[in-house]
Specification:
heterodimer; A: 506 residues; mainly alpha; 23 helices; B: alpha+beta; Jelly Rolls; 2 domains; 4-stranded antiparallel sheet; 14 helices; 58% helix
């Protein structure tokens, strides 16, 4: 055969094969991704330096990444953390599609490194770094990885939401402060962020989308489905990211999500909802310039439904989840009762009795089945779980605590809670007095409840040792008491110092 | 001397002729300017300064090190290969003077480049520091841009040994034991005594007295820093333990109780303490363990007091001087290799030695494990190969030599605000330049003196 012709034929064959391969390649890539056979996916959203590095280094990326990882471990062993952010950045960028690398690096920063610092602001910086690594970088390169969503949700739920770190209250406060900027220091209004009108609203909406990578419309959907949620608290964000993960899993039919991944995402949701129920309401305390937490009673039906749905979907852990559900119901009843929402408490008491009729409702009392106790008896029993029945001092102390809580709630405009605590104090008083023998009343009986109440109120209103002047003023107004008498200024004006009472409160 | 400096001057001229000086100076300055733009710090001014110091000084050391090796090999080997050396050698100058002149030329080049790049880093640090808020500047000046000395508790080794022997004698009188068990029992008693000195029981206090020595003469308006580390037998639920500290002696000085701290075990914590030392310079530190687990403060590094000893500028200069010592050793290594090898082979040998030094971690692992076979860290069991008999002692010897140069860590000290003392600098100069550099110089000069320059060169 003519040599020239042979070359032309071979070149044509090569071209045909290339065209053929390009056709097959697309479906091959799709199958590989669907079946999870490869981690070499096209790198999207990457800056030019990273795109160049990942292509140019090829298989050597892993080696360099390992070397950096070893250096990071060595430095961590030596308690040198100032390089960790840079090393984590390089390691993850060298393996941008290796999900475990993102998870481990973020976990290391949020959990292992953060607690190495004694100052809470240092710890918060590392927790934030962990969150940012996943949210701002990990999801940018792996927008469909459910594990990253789950981990992000877990950081909000566990690291910031739970109280397993001494600094957890600080984290919550810092997060609330950041979110206060987004929500303009008022109760979150998602509508104004979805349709911003003013320049300020537009700026806050931009901040929410660009810095926190959150979509206000999806927040609204989450709020409607699982809420109402308090978006200044971490639990709401745990639910948001887990819900985003579930949505991504549903929207990416090419990829076969692992069943366990979906279950863990749902677990983040119902566990965070439970947290939201327990203390998912922020009560601003203007007197202490801080937030206080209260239970979010409005989401009780949705939390209960979430538990039941999770139990249905996760057969192997069904018993465990239902145990959690029962504990949640017990808390819900008690919280509703203590907030004077007695009819709601009665509804859920009945609900619990219907679903768990053969389970004791009080710890350590095997006969405390729902049918054997009234709602009032259960509420008092909850208070008395930690109080010895015969310990007068402890019961008295508990009653005093309930009364103080009642008045503190009143100061903060939590009127329902005030009434609930008052009711509970009355019930505990009655329960104790009913139990002690008549002949022992003189010896171990309690002071009349009105006297205890009055004593506690006087303590709170004491200008020297009580609450702040502003709180006393609110309390007096709400209770219809006379205005506090302000003592005349001290005649010995030898200095221009502030009055002692005011300075003591500063 | 004039002859030696003439050769040194020729080396400078060669460096400029090959544009090496300009290229390296450009690279060094670029690294100083670009690195701060590229690196990601931990978000604090302190962290940024630490990472900046670490990365810029490491880059400068690496760039200078490689260029020094390259130039050292090139300046001698290429001169010989290109027959320029033959022209010089026939002049009235000894071979050792040529060798020494080249070494001095390289050293002066390094000094100039190091001064240029080191000065730029220093200026950059100072400039950035002035742009920080006052409170951040204060943290920097107190913890990083400073030279801090340290005082630790005297390790009571002699007392422990004495008490160990006493207790051992008592025990032997009661229960005689075999000779084989004697060492084990002695070890157990010693460890028990050490543990008593280190452990703070649950809900118990412990007091340390640190002799600050000459610090007592320093002004008392500056706080000291306490650097502590403790271990716990098991973890707490929060991962941290509450630490309550009081500084001062009840009878001699005021006592200051610090705020309760949430402290993680197995890590160093550093915090300010008041300078409540007594007239003899003794500082009393009391720790109350408010936890339900015993905590152990190691005798070696459990408690350390840091104090301001000098200025950062002088400390920084001493740090650069140690880097300069390293460069001098590399110059000697390159010249020694080029004294008897052609340029490519000399460069290969010199770089191989450098890689060996950098990988000394592997050697020290093998030495500490006592084998080059697989070591199971979980079980604590080790394998054995017949080669261990020869290899491990060789590794030990190599490590001893390497550590003579490597046991100084100026970059680490500078980034953590720790003092590099004059004695450390003197030791570095003695070990690195005089001892190691001297051996290489003696070898290089001796080989170069004996070398027949007029033979046909392999690369031509």
């Amino acid at each position: 055969m003519n040599l020239r012709l042979k070359k032309v034929l071979l070149l044509s064959l090569a071209a045909m094969l290339l065209v053929g391969v390009s056709g097959v390649q697309r479906s091959l890539n799709r199958d590989r991704e669907r079946l999870g056979l490869t981690r070499i996916q096209p790198l999207e959203n990457a800056p030019p330096v990273l795109a160049f590095t990942t292509v140019a280094l090829g298989g050597f990326r892993g080696l360099i990444s390992n070397a950096l990882w070893i250096r990071a471990s060595d430095l961590q062993d030596e308690d040198k953390f100032f390089e960790m952010a840079q090393l984590a950045d390089w390691i993850t960028k060298l393996e941008p599609h290796f999900v475990q690398v993102w998870l481990v690096q973020a976990w290391n920063m949020a959990y292992n490194i953060s607690v190495k610092f004694k100052d809470f602001n240092d710890r918060w910086r590392w927790v934030s770094r962990g969150v940012e690594l996943l949210r701002d970088e990990g999801l940018k390169y792996n927008p469909n990885e459910t594990l990253i969503y789950r981990e992000l949700g877990w950081f909000f739920q566990h690291k910031m939401g739970q109280n397993l770190d001494d600094a957890s209250m600080y984290y919550k406060q810092q997060w609330a402060n950041e979110m206060a900027v987004i929500f303009n220091k008022k109760k979150p209004d998602l509508e104004e962020l979805i349709h911003p009108q003013t320049p300020d609203q537009k700026e806050r909406a931009r901040l929410l989308r660009e810095k926190y990578k959150m979509d206000p419309e999806f927040m609204k959907q989450v709020d409607q489905r699982y809420g109402p949620l308090e978006w200044r608290l971490p639990e709401a964000h745990a639910i948001y990211w887990a819900a985003r993960g579930l949505k991504v899993a549903q929207q990416d039919p090419d990829k076969i999500p692992k069943k366990d991944d979906l279950i863990t995402l749902r677990r983040v949701i119902y566990q965070s909802m439970q947290l939201s129920f327990q203390r998912g309401k922020l009560v601003a305390n203007p007197f202490a310039s801080a937030f206080e937490f209260g239970p979010n009673l409005d989401i009780i039906p949705k939390v209960s439904a979430a538990y039941e749905q999770a139990a249905d979907e996760d057969e192997p852990n069904r018993d465990h989840i239902l145990r959690g559900h029962r504990n949640f119901l017990r808390d819900a009843i008690y919280f509703l009762y203590s907030h004077n929402r007695v009819s709601d408490a009665a509804y859920w008491y009945k609900y619990n009795a219907t679903h768990y009729p053969d389970r004791p409702i009080l710890d350590g009392k095997t006969n405390s089945f729902p049918k054997n106790l009234t709602l009032d008896e259960y509420a008092v029993g909850r208070v008395q779980e930690d109080i010895s029945e015969t310990s007068r001092d402890r019961v008295k102390s508990a009653i005093e605590g309930l009364i103080v809580n009642a008045y503190r709630s009143l100061v903060l405009d939590e009127d329902e809670r005030y009434a609930g605590f008052k009711l509970l104090a009355r019930q505990v008083w009655n329960a104790y007095m009913d139990k002690i023998p008549k002949e022992r009343i003189a010896a171990i009986g309690l002071t009349p409840l009105a006297d205890v109440d009055s004593e506690m109120l006087n303590r709170l209103l004491d200008p020297e040792k009580g609450v702040s002047p502003q709180e006393r003023a609110v309390l007096r107004t709400k209770l219809g008491l006379k205005e506090e008498k302000v003592p005349p200024p001290a005649p010995t004006a030898s200095t221009n110092a502030l009055p002692q009472k005011v300075s003591a409160n500063q | 001397m004039q002859r030696i400096f003439a050769i040194a001057w020729l080396t400078w001229k060669a460096a400029f002729r090959f544009r090496l000086f300009l290229v390296v100076a450009g690279l060094l300055l670029a690294s100083v300017v670009l690195l701060p733009l590229l690196i990601k710090d931990d978000g604090t001014a302190r962290g940024f300064t630490q990472i900046l110091l670490t990365y810029t000084l490491t880059t400068i050391s690496a760039l200078l090190g490689i260029s020094t090796l390259w130039l050292a090999c090139g300046t001698l080997a290429r001169d010989i290969e290109e027959c320029q050396m033959q022209v010089v050698a026939v002049k009235p100058i000894a071979r050792w003077q040529i060798w020494l002149g080249k070494w001095i030329g390289l050293m002066s080049l390094n000094a100039a480049l190091l001064a240029l790049s080191g000065g730029s880093v220093y200026a950059l640090l100072q400039w950035r520091a002035t742009r920080l808020p006052p409170e951040q500047q204060e943290v920097l000046r107190r913890e990083v841009l400073v030279a801090r000395g340290s005082a630790r508790m005297q390790k009571p080794d002699a007392e422990i040994e004495l008490e160990t022997e006493n207790q051992l004698r008592e025990r032997l009188q009661k229960n005689p034991i075999t000779q084989a068990d004697l060492n084990e029992v002695r070890k157990q008693i010693r460890e028990q005594l050490k543990a008593e000195l280190q452990i703070v029981g649950p809900n118990n206090p412990k007091q340390w007295q640190i002799d600050l020595g000459a610090v007592k003469n320093l002004p008392r308006d500056r706080p000291l820093q306490l650097r502590v580390k403790f271990n716990a037998a098991d973890q707490s639920t929060t991962g941290t333990f509450t630490g309550l500290w009081a500084i001062g002696s009840p009878t001699k000085t005021p006592i200051v109780r610090l705020e309760p701290m949430s402290l993680a075990p197995d890590t160093f914590h550093e915090f300010d303490i008041p300078p409540n030392f007594d007239e003899q310079g003794k500082l009393t530190i009391t720790f109350f363990n408010a936890n339900n687990r015993a905590l152990l403060f190691p005798l070696e590094d459990g408690i350390e007091v840091l104090y301001r000893e000098g200025t950062f500028a002088l400390n920084y200069a001493r740090g650069l001087a140690i880097i300069f010592c390293w460069m001098s050793l590399l110059a000697a290594l390159g010249l020694a290799a080029a004294s008897f090898l052609s340029f490519p082979v000399a460069a290969f040998v010199a770089l191989s030695v450098m890689v060996l030094v950098l990988s000394s971690g592997t050697l020290s692992n093998a030495v500490s494990e006592g084998t080059i076979a697989n070591y199971n860290a979980e079980k604590g069991t080790k394998g054995f190969t017949p080669a261990d008999v020869v290899v491990i002692p060789v590794f030990k010897a190599v490590l001893t030599v390497i550590n003579l140069a490597k046991n100084f860590s100026p970059i680490d000290s500078l980034s953590t605000g720790r003092s590099i003392t004059w004695s450390q600098l003197g030791l570095a100069g003695g070990q690195i330049i005089l001892l190691l550099g001297g051996i290489l110089a003696a070898f290089g000069m001796s080989v170069f003196t004996r070398r027949e320059l007029a033979t046909a060169q392999g690369t031509q």
